[in-house]
Design a protein that fits this description.
single chain; 228 residues; alpha/beta; Protein-Tyrosine Phosphatase, Chain A; disordered N terminus; lipoprotein; methylation; Prot-tyrosine_phosphatase-like; TYR_PHOSPHATASE_DUAL_dom
Length: 228
């Protein structure tokens, strides 16, 4: 995986422990988490807009070069205004609190691959894929973690990387899925990656795939404060 990976929060307040990204505060300060996936692509994890807040989101989308928005919950707002402003809308809904079905993963990874390839050829400023569920804490982070895993990052490292800047992301089932059940389609070996300042520090040892190990149990205790 590229050593360009990092996570930074966008316009975050001191109340939730996130660092400020940019100089100007925004009404969407607590809604956005910007993840720099590579030199050519970023992910913007966020909560769900409404028809009344779309104008605010569009201003920030313009600043961040958002080309696509992925909705993994049922639509709650009209997509016409987004399309009129050059933002493509992709509907990939699945059940709240659940894990993504193979059909959703296939389309999602295809989009990530397409955007990365276009940017590498055109060598422009990074594009951003915005992705949201209702609160941006479960389904959206899972798909971002899947993309990181596909690029060779260990599952636990991917979870920690996302969760450090998206506090509360993932539930027990989603973490179990990412750590023990998700199979990397690319076939590349899991490895840790160098990260920029501000990103989570990868674990020093990658746990084996398969049944839950003691390392996994310790990870669950760290995430949820109980025994799993």
């Amino acid at each position: 995986m590229s050593d360009m990976v990092s996570v930074s929060s966008y316009h975050a307040s001191a109340m939730n422990g996130r660092k400020t990204f940019g100089k100007v505060a925004s009404p969407l300060s607590n809604s956005f988490s910007l993840l720099e996936y590579s030199s050519s692509l970023r992910f913007l994890i966020m909560d769900c807009p409404t028809n009344s807040t779309i104008p605010l989101y569009l201003k920030e989308f313009s600043r961040l070069n958002v080309t696509d928005i992925v909705r993994v919950c049922e639509p709650t707002y009209s997509k016409e205004r987004l399309i009129d402003n050059g933002v493509m809308v992709h509907d990939l809904p699945f059940k709240d609190g659940d894990v993504p079905p193979p059909s959703v993963i296939k389309v999602w990874l295809g989009l990530v691959s397409d955007r990365t390839r276009v940017q590498q050829k055109e060598a422009e400023s990074p594009q951003t894929i915005a992705i949201h569920c209702v609160a941006g804490l479960g389904r959206a982070p899972v798909l971002v973690a899947v993309a990181l895993i596909e690029q060779g990052m260990d599952a636990i490292d991917a979870i920690e990387l996302v969760r450090r800047k998206r506090r509360g992301a993932f539930n027990n089932r989603q973490i179990t899925y990412l750590v023990d059940q998700y199979k990397r389609s690319s076939g590349s070996r899991a490895r840790t990656s160098g990260v920029r300042s501000g990103a989570a520090t990868p674990s020093s040892q990658s746990p084996p795939q398969g049944p839950v190990t003691q390392t996994h149990k310790s990870f669950f205790r760290k995430m949820f404060g109980g025994s799993h």
